[in-house]
Specification:
By secondary structure, the protein is α/β, with parallel strands linked by helices. It is built from eight helices and twelve strands. It folds into two domains: 109 residues, ATPase, nucleotide binding domain (Nucleotidyltransferase, domain 5), CATH 3.30.420; 172 residues, 2-Layer Sandwich (Nucleotidyltransferase, domain 5), CATH 3.30.420. The longest helix has 25 residues. The structure holds zinc ion.
């Protein structure tokens, strides 16, 4: 295939809390990695300096046999076509952040960048549970809800580079206020934050005893809700049920648009496992048009948090390999 096996890519995953860097080979082996606090609330200039230092520390691990071929970046609200992060929520870096340009000025390699959920979809396709599939939808259920759509083996970017934002499809007109300015977006219900909102709504509308009553909104985590549900806490179970019902319905809509072979779930909410997966599959099935029933898989991503760099690595590899073999 004309691929030098000593070739590696530099993969960068920028998250609201941590930034992860990795040197990754074509098989998805992470040769070296670094992790540091993003400092999303600090000015971008502070990040830039730390980023520079960490990248050069990582690159000092490269021996002379390895050749960096490209750089892949996954970041919140990153646009593949413009190379900028656009109004990323929870970041204090300004409205349009020219991240691709910043990296290009540091290192003279081709740089590819897309949003974190798109990168996760490419990672699942090349290295993860989506390997060998052609049509998948990856949902990242964390603080928000991100999505990446692979159609006929290709990531869908759309006309302007921002396709596949299922987190902001509408569930209820005049529903919960979303960070994006709209009301009733899917991620205000189906995300760790959305589930917390559901839990607090349920608690305030009932007198039933619940382990979750002892938490403040700020302290409650997705893991706490999962653990409560495993202990058969009524409020926690109801919160999972409602979340699964809303997501299942929207997944059925997505099937009507795309007919994927599988949905692949990743992120905090997916860690609840069968507790979430079983009702989710049932609700999705019950909302599916006849032609699709019993066909679409719902899978959990098996990659760990340290493997977050595999998404941006897959983005870089996809671009290199496409160019090597036009
Ligand atoms: Zn929204």
């Amino acid at each position: 295939m004309g691929v030098n096996l000593n070739k590696i890519v530099l993969a960068i995953d920028i998250g609201g809390t941590f930034t992860k860097l990795g040197l990754v080979d074509p098989k998805g082996q992470i040769i070296a990695s670094r992790i540091f606090k993003t400092g999303a609330n600090e000015p971008f200039e502070i990040f830039k300096e730390l980023f520079h230092t960490e990248i050069f520390r990582l690159i000092s691990n490269i021996n002379s046999e390895n050749i960096v071929s490209a750089i892949g970046i996954g970041a919140p609200n990153a646009n593949y076509k413009t190379g900028t992060m656009e109004n990323p929520p929870n970041f204090n870096w300004g409205q349009t952040i020219p991240l691709k340009k910043v990296v290009q000025e540091m290192l003279n390699y081709p740089v590819y960048m897309t949003n974190d959920a798109n990168a996760a979809a490419l990672g699942a396709l090349r290295f993860g549970v989506g390997k060998g599939m052609q049509n998948i939808v990856v949902l990242t259920l964390g603080t928000g809800l991100g999505s990446g759509i692979i159609n006929e083996g290709k990531l869908i970017y759309g006309q302007y580079g921002m396709a596949g934002e299922l987190g902001h499809v509408n569930v209820f007109p005049e529903g919960r206020q979303c960070n994006c300015g709209l009301k009733g977006c899917l991620e205000t219900y189906v995300s760790v934050t959305g589930m917390k909102r559901t839990v607090f709504e349920l608690l305030s509308n009932s007198n039933s005893a619940s382990i979750l009553r002892s938490y403040s909104f700020k302290d409650l985590t997705g893991k706490d809700i999962s653990e409560a549900a495993h202990q058969k806490d009524g409020i926690a179970l109801e919160a999972f049920k409602r979340t699964a019902k809303i997501l299942g319905g929207k997944m059925a809509d997505t099937v009507a648009h795309l007919e994927p072979e599988a949905f692949i779930l990743t992120g905090g909410l997916s860690q609840a496992g069968d507790l979430f997966l079983k009702p989710l599959k049932n609700y999705m099935e019950s909302a599916l048009f006849n032609a699709y029933k019993g066909k679409v898989k719902v899978l959990l991503s098996k990659s760990t948090r340290t493997e977050a760099v595999l998404g941006p690595a897959a983005l870089a590899w996809e671009n290199i390999l496409t160019k090597d073999n036009p």
